[in-house]
Amino acid sequence: MAEPVTSSNPGRYAIGSAATAERPITRIILMSVAFAFLAIFLVMPLVIVFTEAFSRGLAPFWENLADPDTLSAIRLTLIVAAISVPLNLVFGVAAAWAIAKFEFKGKAFLITLIDLPFSVSPVISGLVYVLLFGSTSLLGPWLKMHGIVILFAVPGIVLATVFVTFPFVARELIPLMQEQGTGDEEAALSLGANGWQTFWFVTLPNIKWGLLYGVLLCNARAMGEFGAVSVVSGHIRGVTNTMPLHVEILYNEYNAVGAFAVASLLAGLALVTLVLKTLLEMRYGEELAATRGH
Amino acid sequence: MSTTPAQAGWRFKAPSVIPGFGLTLGFSLAYLTLIILIPLAGLLLRSASLGWADFWAIATDERTVKALEISFGTAIVAALVNVVFGTIVAWILVRYRFPGRRIVDAMVDLPFALPTAVAGIALTTLYAPNGWIGHLLMPLGIKVAYTPLGIVIALIFIGLPFVVRTVQPIIEEIDKEVEEAAATLGANRWQTISRVLLPGLAPAIVTGFALAFARGVGEYGSVIFIAGNLPYVSEIAPLLIVIRLEEYDYAAATAIASIMLGLSFAMLLVINLIQSWSRKRYG
């Protein structure tokens, strides 16, 4: 089953001789090790989510999903994603435009700052907002006086989600737009298009698949975020519980079927994300930055 | 800002006919400042206002030290495991052709897409004493769930794609001629791999290790279910932050968070240095 690469990629690996490929026995060992590892660490966790969710049959699965608290968690997760993803989408496009289309001082530093949320623990991403808006902060008393509720409510959950998903769209677009250069835009401008026309009719069509790719990953993280949201949510059942937080609550109440029923929805979302991502890479690989290993 | 040169010939921005620089950069900086920089600066300010003595007392508290040791220790072990298996997976995906390769390739990204809480309860169920894997390990006397080993398992899951996705493109770029040259000069396959190929992959492997490690140190969702969360034994630093917050001990939560941030930024710096060094060396 494992033949050396010869036919499928002839230009590159045309010479599949013994000198530049592993011996068959080595190949079999390497592949067995890799498959065993992937089966244990990737396939089994995925499979068990669905087996546990349906372990008592379909009826308990549906009952758990139809629970009002579950439905409200699903609604909240959708609302949070619907606010935070567009925010980071607009930011990603703006940041990529400034960084890719212009040369200015401090650009590398700016890119590092954009990547910052990736290296911050999710718990800290939530904590910073607790410190900023909590009752012991400078803003706390003022917010309370004006009746503005941010923490342990939807605004706090949105902020924490925006924080953790901040780099996704920008990270995908920056290398892509840098590679595309400014030639197309300059041509459009010289033909009389204004800035917005140039963006809508020239730049956007060039980056649309990369943009979709970034939004896809951003959305998956936004709907699945646990640590940051957990810190700012307050865990009020039916009010500030997102789907991942609801999974935790059900699990800790020893309602395994319920926890895995909600988890199976999230796992389904992950699978759909992976399928769409793979389709995008197969179909539009040339127009995506992420597939070129920047 | 763009029109005030600090010295003759110094420009903040190179001239361009493309519009929208002020708008997009201004918006990006404002958004970045509001969402990321001010909240992070608030954390550091709050931590600085603690005073050195208080900060030091929290930082050297035995429970804090243990939690940091556990977080960093398990993250290093998991990243090392991922370096070995992640590199093998990347090698197989690039060099071998087998049915379903595309699916296996896509599956590698599962830990990026699967919410951490889902991964947490799935791994816990697998490795619990009566779970699919747990009941096989029980007779061998190996306990995974509710021990530090469980933390390592969760972090291996979380970190795998970082290593594979860093190493894979570099393997794709390897010039077959280098291997042919080594073989022509009499090297056997193992010598070619260990003396010729691996040194070229080393920067990517180190970067993958650093990324997996950095992610593992801060990981929370997938770990807390499987760890058992026993103070001094299997309690990770992010969980200790949450516990301190729930006790309204904001000072301790802030201090632990800034220690973790400091260490993560040091990591980020190292990653950038490695990348620029390897870019210079391997172009």
Largest sheet of chain A: none
Biggest interface between protein chains, with counts per chain? A-B, 113 and 101 residues
From the alpha carbons, calculate the radius of gyration of chain B and give it in angstroms.
23 Å
- Summing up helix and strand content along with how strands pair, one would put the structural category of chain A as mainly alpha
How many angstroms does the end-to-end distance of chain B come to? Answer: 35 Å
Task: Write down the overall mean pLDDT of chain A.
Answer: 90
- Helix content class of chain A: over 70%
Q: Indicate the mean pLDDT of chain B.
A: 90
CATH class of the largest domain in chain B: Mainly Alpha
Number of contiguous helices of chain B: 13
What is the topological layout?
The complex is a heterodimer of chains A (294) and B (283).
Chain A: E1 3-4, H1 24-53, H2 58-66, H3 68-101, H4 107-115, H5 122-133, H6 139-145, H7 154-165, H8 167-180, H9 183-190, H10 195-224, H11 227-233, H12 243-252, H13 256-284
Chain B: H1 21-48, H2 52-59, H3 62-95, E1 96-97, H4 101-107, H5 110-113, H6 116-127, H7 134-137, H8 148-173, H9 176-184, H10 189-218, H11 221-227, H12 237-246, H13 250-282
Helix pairs in contact in B: 1-13, 3-8, 3-10, 6-8, 6-11, 8-10, 8-11, 9-10, 10-13, 12-13
